[in-house]
Amino acid sequence: MNTASVKYQLAEGVATLTLNRPQRHNALVQEMLDGLRDALARCREDRPAALRLRAEGRSFSSGGDIAAFYQVPRPARADYARRLVGTLNDVILDLLHLPVPTVAEVHGMVTGGSLGLVLACDIVVAGPRAHFAPWYTAVGFSPDGGWTALMPERIGRGRALEVQLTNRRIEAKEALAWGLVNYLAEDGCVAEMTDEVVARLRTAKTASVRNTLALTRPYPERVARGLQMELEQFVARIDSDEAELGMAAFLERTGTRKTNR
């Protein structure tokens, strides 16, 4: 089940799914999203006691790879975005439909659409340096990854709107207070705390867990409608002059501007 950007392992009744593109801060590209779908399908077959979602490197994920978006010629960018964001939506829904509890082990930055991977998990364990930010209004994109379909339910509509409009980041302690994060570990202890949470899940009664998930998780059909709306608006914005200029400015600031056009 392993690919260059995704690793999947099953051991002692626990599945571990690892984002493995650390040199690009685990930015979301098509290969990674396809790998996540394949791994989640395998997890559904394995039926572990729990799924642990983690990432290699300094960051959990920086969201959509803006350099990859920018390198796509403008006439093809809408199709590229539709496939990429559409697959991200599928991954989010796969997580919500997975009949096992999911635990996100989060460190470093979580930006843009990668927040959807966290929002779709049942329990979130974060380190003290974890932070979350949208970046949409700074770059010129429309929100995706559940920022409108899932985030308002998690932290409140007013908070979700303010964070997105002002493009400010949510620090770890604030994320805990708002309910975006369930556990805040000490520095260097995120994996250890996640181990403790997973150990408790392993002792829970299987049928009871599945009923609890089905009754308590966000209603998948409603989430699917919200994600579809995000997708349509994202695709509509990606080929705009505002997004073109926003991407160029962002890549100029970060020193990663490249183009094959």
Overview of the structural elements:
The protein is an alpha/beta fold. Helix content is 52%, strand content 14%. The protein is built from 12 helices and 9 strands. Helix 1 (30-46) packs parallel to helix 3 and helix 3 (74-97) runs antiparallel to helix 11 (220-238). The model has no long low-confidence stretch (mean pLDDT 95). Keywords: Isomerase. This is 2-(1,2-epoxy-1,2-dihydrophenyl)acetyl-CoA isomerase. It is an enzyme of class 5 (isomerase).
Secondary structure layout:
Layout: E1 6-11, E2 14-19, H1 30-46, E3 50-55, H2 66-71, H3 74-97, E4 102-106, E5 109-111, H4 115-119, E6 123-126, E7 131-133, H5 136-139, H6 151-155, H7 157-166, E8 170-171, H8 172-178, E9 183-184, H9 190-202, H10 206-216, H11 220-238, H12 241-254
Parallel strand pairs: 2-3, 3-4, 4-6, 5-7, 6-9
Antiparallel strand pairs: 1-2, 7-8
User: Largest sheet, described in full?
Assistant: 6 strands, mixed
Number of strands: 9
- The general outline is globular
At the third CATH level, what is the topology name?
2-enoyl-CoA Hydratase, Chain A, domain 1
* Percent range of helical residues: 40-55%
**First-to-last CA distance:** 34 Å
Give the second-level CATH assignment, the architecture.
Alpha-Beta Complex
Question: Helix and strand succession?
Answer: EEHEHHEEHEEHHHEHEHHHH
| Residue runs with pLDDT of under 50 for 5 or more positions | none
Portion in strands: 5-15%
EC number: 5.3.3.18
GO molecular function: isomerase activity
Keywords: Isomerase
Organism: Microbulbifer hydrolyticus
